[in-house]
Task: structure prediction
Amino acid sequence: MALKYSRQRELIKDFLRERRDHPTADIVYRNVRLLNPNISLGTVYRNLALLTDRGEIRRLRLGDGTDHFDADISPHYHFICNKCGCVQDLQMDGMADIPDVDSLHFKGKITGRMTYFYGLCEQCCQNSGD
Amino acid sequence: MALKYSRQRELIKDFLRERRDHPTADIVYRNVRLLNPNISLGTVYRNLALLTDRGEIRRLRLGDGTDHFDADISPHYHFICNKCGCVQDLQMDGMADIPDVDSLHFKGKITGRMTYFYGLCEQCCQNSGD
DNA sequence: TTCCTTGCAAATCGTTTGCATAATG
DNA sequence: CATTATGCAAACGATTTGCAAGGAA
Result:
């Protein structure tokens, strides 16, 4: 499955790289369309799936009903604000803090894990007149 | 919002309590319908949402496109098999192993986290003729 | 009688897909 | 020319919702 150049895919990658807020497919679509008004939603979905499969971007399934995408594929965690729904990166003192697979009494083989943190973001903490 | 008795809701709770495999709404529907052929999918969804909101059951967003439900609301982790898609409970040596929120350089307030483990279940490990 | 709950069907939402056309190598 | 990618619209699967009727307090 050789990859051929496509302007659309480049625009999608570029957009994703300059965003730190983990946009959804629809947000990618709406923004890329500003630069290429003819692009279709289907193309955006296809390319996001393709890039995810190739490991060039990361798909975040945050459980809010719609997938988010992150051009930063380095190991890091994500925080989701329960109030405003924003998604932020979390920096930890080494990812080693995360539960050790060995401590699990499990007969199968664990090859990966996914962790998300939830709470109130800094902004929403301040406007606490909830 | 005072809660009134409903046979349908009881059936749903009963079914969920006797299952350890974290069924989806549709599976709940199909099974409860055996006892109450008139129940509708909408009612199942409404009650699952209601019970989730009240904390009587847990909703699992595993990222496989459909939500799963768990009557066991005690703290424990879940494992999802990448091959057969089954969902299993994980027992750890105390949940304390999980990343300490204090180790996060984060200005907001973290109130919860969600962790899922992925890999091959025991069954699928054996039938390794993948 | 009040109002929570239901069954049913239509509606929504996010995402995928078929197909004919356009662009790349 | 062979192949991959695109735009468009229709199709999809999961979940939600409006509404009139039913059941519980």
Observations:
- Residues 1-6, 8-9, 38-43, 46-47, 65 of chain A lie near DNA strand D (CB under 10 Å from a C1').
- Chain A has a mean pLDDT of 89.
